[in-house]
Amino acid sequence: MSPLSPIRRAILASVATATLALPMQASAEEVVVFAAASLKNALDAVAADFQTATGNTVTISYAGSNALAKQIIEGAPADIFISAAVNWMDEVEKAGLVVDGTRTDLLGNTLVLVAHGKDDAKVEIGKDFDLKGLLGDGKLAMAMVDSVPAGQYGKASLEALGIWGAVEPSVAQAENVRAALALVSSGEAPYGIVYASDAVADENVTVVGTFPNDSHPAIVYPAALLKGAADPADKAFLEALSSDAADADFTGQGFTVLH
Q1: pLDDT computed for residue 27 by the predictor
Q2: CA distance 12 to 179
Q3: 179-212: buried (b, 16+ CB within 10 Å) or exposed (e) per residue?
Q4: What confidence tens digit (pLDDT) does each residue in 213-239 have?
Q5: What are the Cα distances from residue 245, in Å, to 45, 60, 73, 183, 257?
Q6: Closest-CA residue to 195 (of 71, 205, 79)
Q7: What are phi and psi of 146, to 5 degrees?
Q8: Cβ pair 92, 73 in contact under 8 A
Q9: Highest CATH level, class, for 111-215
Q10: 46-69: average pLDDT
Q11: Which has more pLDDT, 48 or 26?
Q12: Class at the top of the CATH hierarchy for domain 30-107+221-257
């Protein structure tokens, strides 16, 4: 290979200098979110809008709030946690894993009784409601009643209404509220207790009754940035959860906005 001429060397040197002087392109960042299973449809829409607008990636793990909180406390790498109950966010905060000043009560929800299909008659849910008679030999699908928020709210309501003892033997417990919804959607259980937002998300079920708000603790979804969050995109996505566009996605899926 013949040696480069002085002119050729000068040209290449100037190109290299110009290249080094160019600003580096910002690389896309990943936001890892741990979120209650009941948020899936609405939160997927919020994440898709954020990704389109920013070029960043949002990776969401959905499960029962109890399972997610335990994973975070045990060291699972997450940037944002959205719980379906304040008690599980409290546990994460007690472990020192919530960034100060970032926790906010994001959303609320309603507890409903759903039936498989679209033809079941509406019922009035109140004190001593004959849910056992309605079930007959069928099962009542619920999220885990001692650990998953939807199951805990449901059990509390049934106890307050004086009917837990009668229906407890008929309860089919699922690992999270969406799994309980699936049992009703598929017809494996004729009825289930889920959130109003879950009923909106499944065309194979219908709401036949709403549990009185004063029969269970208030349903609140707190969100917070976690100590492992290091990218600007993490904070940006947390802020996006309270935007007007996100509010529209959440209310369209049956949630109420609290922030």
Answers
A1: 67
A2: 63
A3: bbbbbbbeeebbbbbbbbbbbbbbeebbbbbebe
A4: 999 999 999 999 999 898 999 999 999
A5: 10, 19, 31, 32, 12
A6: 205
A7: -105, 0
A8: yes
A9: alpha beta
A10: 97
A11: 48
A12: alpha beta
Neighbour tally for 22: CB within 10 Å = 7
Task: Report the length, in residues, of the chain.
Answer: 259
Q: In 64-156, which ranges are E strands?
A: 80-82, 104-108, 111-116, 140-143
Structure tokens at 202: 């499944």
Give the pLDDT confidence of 187-218 residue by residue, as tens digits.
999 999 999 999 998 999 999 999 999 999 99
Tell me the pLDDT band of 120, cut-offs 50, 70 and 90: confident
243: tokens are 């935007």
Kindly report the pTM of this predicted structure: 0.84
Which residues of the chain does CATH 3.40.190.10 include?
A: 30-107+221-257, 111-215
Average pLDDT over residues 87-116: 97
User: CA dihedral defined by 58, 61, 66, 72, rounded to 10 degrees?
Assistant: -60
Among residues 191, 202, 189, the alpha carbon closest in space to that of 115 is found at 191
Q: CA-CA distance, 95 to 72, in Å (whole number)?
A: 9
Lookup result for tokens 């004063």: 214
Tokens found for residue 103: 């926790």
Q: Are strands 256-257 and 205-210 parallel, antiparallel or unpaired?
A: unpaired
